[in-house]
Structures are given as structure tokens and as C-alpha cells.
Amino acid sequence: MHQLPKVPATEVENRINKFQKTLQQFELDGALITQNVDIYYLTGSMQNGVLFVPASGQPRFYVKKSVSRAEVEASVPVEAMGRIKELGKKIQSRFGQVKKIGIEMDVLPYGLAIRYLSMFPDGEPVDISFPLRLQRAVKSDYELEQLRVAASRVNEIVALLPEIIRPGMSEAELAAKIEYKLHLHGNPGIYRMRGYNQELSLGVVASGSAAATPTYFDGPAGGLGLTTASPQGASHETIAAGEPILVDISMVNEGYIVDQTRIAVIGELDQELESAYELTRKILKEAETMGKPGVPWKFLYARALEMVEEAGLTEHFMGYGQDRAKFLGHGVGLEFDELPVLATAFDQPLETGMVIAIEPKFTFPGRGVVGIENTYLVTENGLEPITFASEELIRIPAG
Amino acid sequence: MHQLPKVPATEVENRINKFQKTLQQFELDGALITQNVDIYYLTGSMQNGVLFVPASGQPRFYVKKSVSRAEVEASVPVEAMGRIKELGKKIQSRFGQVKKIGIEMDVLPYGLAIRYLSMFPDGEPVDISFPLRLQRAVKSDYELEQLRVAASRVNEIVALLPEIIRPGMSEAELAAKIEYKLHLHGNPGIYRMRGYNQELSLGVVASGSAAATPTYFDGPAGGLGLTTASPQGASHETIAAGEPILVDISMVNEGYIVDQTRIAVIGELDQELESAYELTRKILKEAETMGKPGVPWKFLYARALEMVEEAGLTEHFMGYGQDRAKFLGHGVGLEFDELPVLATAFDQPLETGMVIAIEPKFTFPGRGVVGIENTYLVTENGLEPITFASEELIRIPAG
């Protein structure tokens, strides 16, 4: 069938074992996993189907398409799915009656959930998404390796920026050139997001007032975008000297996403914006020290808010005014919007092995966005950077 | 805020009026529209929020982010959304008690649906997706104009293929070069799909045996892909002389997607594959004549199956063996997987103004995929092509 690298079988086995402990803890008979990314995480294959994970014993991947490809890729047993009615019978004859069943309530569409749940007439659905996402937040050595390769690719892009960026080019042209280089490195161009209606293309490559345009995207920088039908990120606006050029880009390697932001400027940056940029670097350093196992996620956000308030920049932090995003960072991995979320509502503690993109940014309407972002690994000694491009402003001669 | 082109206000008004007729026909008090594409279609804005459309009277767009941007883009009244509890009160104090409510059951996640429905304690949910998608299937002059611009961009790519394709380049490199050119034309790189777990990056640019690798994607050609985490489309395999190079690409303009497939070959194509390609052209011509208002969608697929069976190629049609897709074409518009679907289960009639991508293809395992695809408009005289690149095999000298 094919010779593509596979997720190691031991990796899949460890993931299933850990997930089954959660199922036991929640006193579930099993979980019906339906989302492509969760299925990939728990089987090693992203073929189309559903995965039944019993509280103990071997899971089974019921595949619609392609069965033959799933057989090659998955490290769990594969069977043709058939119709939903038949599937219910297959599952219960193999695994017994299912009374309490985990489903992914944050992603599984309502209509499909009703149909799947009809397979278990006495089954009570329980939302299993948060615990599964919490498990996925802690990365294995295999996963870290994939992220480190992705980080080296975005570093290469930053090194090339001085020769790519030219006054008078459009944001879209700059974004296209960056994406082209990432594609040649094997970036598939799909940046998976779990959040309903959230989507991302490359990231936010934008400058000046266009970068400061607010938008629907739940992040600290929006961007004007190309059209009202794609209202975020790069636009057709021209990049001019003296304005901050936001290069917030992602690279995907073997499914794993890293996220990194750097700022470039043609000529000189306005002193106020440069000071704000320096403050984002300080916020990042503070987070690096604070980010140890056991520290609640919300503490890093709270500390950043303190530093921003001291500087009198609260209205500009993570967007402007009403359009501010209310977080400092987000987990990355197979999805762009993973746990942890560094935000007020989250009391959960950081754990060794979690991977977080931390992205303090300031928006100045009409002038631009400045900020920085690294993807980090949580270790006993604090946050260890996975992305490693130079954090200095990238200065491009005006002439 | 910004000067981007807007969806004309009369366009939005017509769409709302038509949708309200459906709500009345279904005896609904209103519909709560939550999906970004449906919201864009019915308001002109893709900002994050929910749209309440009463059975009659003015709809209201409750926006989370960005309210200020939605006010500029939307042609319906905008209000800050607030928390879900407050939203329920706001809606019922403005629109009265809601007893029967339309929701998009095919896309709205289960957990979110439960929360939204809790706003209407006596409300009975009804799936409004299919009728809304049916309405969206029929395009206005404004929408056709956007599609025609997109078609001219994919035509330009086909014209460039003889100078882009070189023996020994990888599929990924070819895909990257094509995508780069489309990006410069304003392609945002997001190809929206409505189907759960379905996703697309550019299309399928693949050759030889890699193109014939089956995958999860619900289409006639899969492709090996770059990794098991992105198992479709272009791979790192090398393009060799004598094998069919499938260039199945999409371009998005103002949110509207066209889909087109052409085949290139370096040197000479195997006679059996070339004959199969000629048969796909004949199937397309037959569909062009048959595709008139009133004809059931399934008839076009049934006729194609007949022609394929006469040629003894049934096992190869729209994928191979167990991995065949069971349709001939699909609607395109703001989403890649719109109505109509030309498949056995669909008795619905074609209507003037529907736009369909028709894509007969044959898969030969180990050898490649051949086929053709145009995006068409349904007219009284049959299907009128919107994509218009030459349908001849693109022959590239081997030396």
C-alpha cells in the first residue's frame, strides 16, 4: 500500500492504555471516538470511520474508507464499518451492553450524535473530550521530535525574511512566498482547529493598520484578510516602511503544529511600538520562568496582565478594546487550539511534557501589531523553547 | 474599518426572504444559524456569532467577535451576543416565544446544540440544514460572477503547466508551485468543507501509483499524501514520464470555489489509460446534454454507470474496488461539498442556476488516475461550463 512513516505501535499502545484509565475513572463502558484527529491519535491512522475503545481490552477501528489503507496504518484491529444499524450490533456483540459511553461532544455534530447514540438504546452519553484533550496536551518523546523538526522549518523562514521582504510587496505576496517554502518542506497546508467555526490558513502575515483590523478569529491578532469571506490574515494591502510586519506562522510536521511569531520592519519602528515589543519579550521571559509543573494555567495570564497594566497598555493587549482575546497562550500539537489554555477560567496545573504557544501581543489601531510567540515544552526547570529563531526585531534596510 | 468589497445588500435581502419562506413552509418560529458559512451567506459577514432568523421580519446577528467589524460587513442588524443565558432572553423578548426552531444538525456540535437549545425550554429542534443547502445550491448572478473569476484563475494555471511540470520533480513541489500562483491571485488557501472530518488542501495534484492510493477523502481520487497524518493529495513521490499527472485543483474567489481537473503526461500515456480518459470526456459530454432542469440528480450518475459498464471499467470508476466513491459530481459554492450530489440516493430534480462539479475518473492501482472535471451551471439548454481550460491531454515533451 505505502511506505510512509507510521506512528510507532508502542506509542499508540501507551495512548490507548492511558485513555482507558480515564474511561475507568469516569466509570464508562467505553468511548465512541469519531473525530479524525482523535482517531489518528489513538490508532495511528486518519482513515474515515469510528473507533470504539472499551474501558479495558483491545479497541476496534470500524472503517468506512479506506479499509485497506487503515489496515496498513492503524496499530489497532480494523474492520469494515457497514451501516450504523449493523455497527451497533457489531459493537455490542463484541463488547457487551454499553450503558455509559464517552463521546466527543465539542466536535461531533448533533445529528450524527443522535444517530450514533441510537446504537446504544440504554446508553447514557458522557462528554469525553476534555479528558482526552488533557491527555493529548502532554507530549511523548515521539511527538516532541515531530515538533522540533517543524520548529527548525519556521526558523529557516525567519532567516530568509530579510531577502524575501521588500517595500511595496503585498501582505498576500509575502504570505504566499512563506507558504511556498513551507510547502516544499512538506507542510500540508491544513492547520487543524478543533473549535467550531475556527479556521486558519498559514497564520497571520500582516503589517501596519491591516494587521490591527479585528476579526472573528479567537487570537490576539486578526488581520484584514483577502475578502469578507476570508476575513483574517494576509490582505492585498502593501507593506510599507516603518510599520511592524507580523510574521505569525505555523508549520505542520507529521501532523504536529508549531506556532511562532516574529516582527520585521523596513527601516525604523516607531519608538512606542518598539517599547511595546520589548515588553512582550519581557512577558515571555517571565512566563518561561513561571511555567513549571503544578502552576495553574491562569497564573501566567494573570501575571502578564499585571505587567501590561503597569505599562498602561491594558486596552492594547491581545487585540484592542472590545476585540481583545482573553488568553496568553494555547497548547499546540495535532491541533492548533489544544490544551492548556492560559486564561482566567482554567485552574488546572501545568504538567511536565505539555506544549504551549505563548504569544503576548499588542494592537495599535491604525498602526499595527507587535508581539512575539514561541512554542514551549513544560519542564521541571520552567519552559524550554521548541521554536528557536532569534527574537530580535528583524531590521530590513529601507533603501 | 475597511474597504473590502461587500456582498450586495439586495443579495442578502433576497437570501433572507427565500429562507424565511422555507421557515414558514416548515412551520418554524425561526432558525438559529451558527455555522460560519451559513452566517456569511445570510448576512454578508463571517464574524463569530449566531444569527436568529424569525419566520418573518428582520433577522438579527448576535456577535461575539468582532462586533465592530460585523457592523461594517453585515447587511442585517448586529448586536453584541453576551452570554448564552442572556442571549436566550434577548431573542425571546424580541421575537416572542420560540416553539419550533431550525438548527443546522449536520454541523452544530452536540454539546453546543444542547447549550443553545437550553435557551428555548419549550423549543422543538428541527434540522434546517438540507433546505438551506438546497437554497444555497441555486446561485445568483452575483455568485456566478465570483465563480467565473475563480474559473479564469484555474484556466491560467492549466496554461502554465507545460512550463511548470518537469520530470523528476515531486508531486509536492508541483502542488506548491500551483498553490503559490493561486495565492498570488488571492486564493486564501482554505477550501471549506461541510462534511464532518472532511478537509482539503488545494486538491489532488498527484501522479502514477501515488495518485491511485486510496484514502479517507470522499472523492474519486485520493492520493498518497505527505504523511499518515495528512493522507491525501500530493506526496513526496517523484513525477515520472508516461504516467498520468492528475491536476485536480480548486480556486476560491470571494469565498466561492470552482473545481477543475485536467490530466498531463510527460511523453506518452499508456493506450489503455488514454482510452479511459477519452471515456471520461464522453461521460462529461453526456452529462452536459442530460443536465437540464427537472432531471433527477441520480439520473446523471446512473447514465455514467451504464457507460462505464459497457466499457468493462466498473471496478475502476471513481476509485478502485472497495474504495470507489459512489457519485459523479457535487455542488460547489461557498463550500466544496454542496448540493446537488449526483448519486443514487438523490431523487431531487436539477434546477436552473445550480452549480455542479462533475468529475468522472478512473483509478488503475499501481498506474494512476485519469479523468476530467468541470464546474457547470445548470441552464434550460443543459450544463454550461464555468471552467473552460482546454480538455485535451496536456502533453509535455519527455526530453
Q: What is this entry, summarized?
A:
The structure is a homodimer of 399-residue chains. With 399 residues, chain A is an alpha+beta fold. Helices cover 34% and strands 22% of the residues of chain A.
Question: How are the secondary structure elements laid out?
Answer:
Two copies of one chain form a homodimer.
Chain A: H1 9-25, E1 30-33, H2 36-43, E2 48-54, E3 60-65, H3 67-73, E4 78-80, H4 84-95, E5 100-103, H5 110-117, E6 124-127, H6 129-137, H7 141-164, H8 171-184, E7 203-207, H9 208-211, E8 245-253, E9 256-266, H10 271-290, H11 297-310, E10 329-331, E11 338-342, E12 355-358, E13 361-364, E14 368-371, E15 374-379, E16 382-385, E17 394-396
Parallel strand pairs in A: 1-5, 3-4, 5-6, 9-17
Antiparallel strand pairs in A: 1-2, 2-3, 7-8, 8-9, 10-11, 10-12, 12-15, 13-14, 15-16
GO molecular function (chains A, B): aminopeptidase activity
Pfam family, one (chains A, B): Creatinase_N
Protein name (chains A, B): Aminopeptidase P family protein
